[in-house]
Design brief:
Layout (H helix, E strand, L loop, with lengths): L2 H26 L4 H25 L7 H14 L1 H14 L1 H10 L3 H16 L10 H26 L2 H30 L8 H25 L3 H26 L4 H30 L4
Helix pairs in contact: 1-2, 1-3, 1-5, 2-6, 3-4, 4-10, 7-8, 7-9, 7-10, 7-11, 8-9, 9-10, 10-11
Length: 291
């Protein structure tokens, strides 16, 4: 076996040991027995993969501890499903290494295919409570980014006073968040079916919290800049960043396409903001505000 092939095999071996330790750490932190069992099973499989590569290299390989703690941290603070699936995406990007290994050691192809299918089946079995309420979070953020962003754009041209816009925007945003949360509660309660474990109260809380968080982030620039148009520009940038971050989170956690969802949401948000900006201009003329 030449040195290049040995290096590739050791890389694969090290990756498997790293993931074995990540899953073992995540399993130890789980209170949910089902999730703990799934993670322990994946951890054991990764250890098996490591031993498989070791039969090819005849050597031990140390884990990448920085990667271990990175994914344990991400899973702890951003959710188990997100952390695990983000790590699996990293594996997808590493397939080039495995492809070269298969070219030189063809008998590993079926083993790698079986491992990938088994791992996907196991990760899809993870039952994370927060993901049940992603729809409610999407509802809150969508409404805040489209409706509230549009309102701020309209207020900017109509009022042209940063502090006044911030005050009116904050009141409008909190009222809208409470309204959205109440609507989500009533909607979930009326549609709740037998055996559905979704809590209408928690769904309402996720909707309201997502909306309020967006309100604070979008209003903040008007508290920083005295020029309302500069504040609006930063608010638009903030909205785009929120869309990018949340769309990425959902695309990873729910195995969805990133770009289609991002472009659609960004286009709707900016389109409504542009129309509202024009409405603000007409309102200023019709009512003589600031004249």
């Amino acid at each position: 076996m030449d040195e290049a092939l040995t290096a590739r095999l050791l890389t694969a071996q090290r990756n498997e040991m790293t993931e074995h330790i990540v899953y073992r750490n995540l399993a130890a932190r789980q209170k949910n027995p089902h999730n703990r069992e799934v993670l322990e099973k994946i951890s054991a499989d990764e250890r098996g993969h490591y031993e498989f590569w070791k039969t090819k290299t005849g050597r031990d390989a140390a884990p990448n501890w920085l990667t271990v703690w990175k994914y344990v941290f991400i899973a702890r603070f951003l959710g188990l499903t997100f952390g695990v699936k983000l790590m699996e995406r990293g594996e997808e990007r590493a397939k080039g290494v495995y492809g070269k290994i298969i070219e030189e050691v063809p008998e590993t192809a079926s083993t790698l295919a079986d491992e990938a299918a088994h791992e996907k089946a196991l990760t899809d079995m993870i039952d994370e409570d927060m993901l049940k309420y992603v729809g409610s979070m999407v509802l809150g953020l969508n409404d805040a980014l489209v409706e509230f962003m549009g309102a701020l754009a309209g207020f900017t041209l109509a009022l042209q006073n940063s502090r006044l816009i911030a005050m009116v925007g904050f009141i409008t945003g909190i009222a809208a968040a409470l309204s959205m949360a109440a609507s989500e509660y009533l909607s979930q309660k009326s549609e709740k079916e037998d055996g559905d474990t979704t809590s209408p109260l928690r769904a309402a809380m996720y909707t309201g919290i997502a909306y309020i968080a967006a309100v604070f982030l979008l209003v903040a620039p008007f508290l920083v800049f005295s020029n309302p148009f500069a504040a609006l520009a930063l608010t638009v940038i903030t909205a785009i960043v929120i869309i990018v971050v949340f769309t990425f989170y959902i695309s990873v956690a729910k195995n969805l396409t990133f770009w289609n969802r991002f472009l659609e949401m960004a286009a709707v948000c900016l389109g409504v903001a542009t129309i509202s900006f024009g409405i603000g201009y007409l309102t200023r003329i019709l009512f003589g505000v600031g004249a």
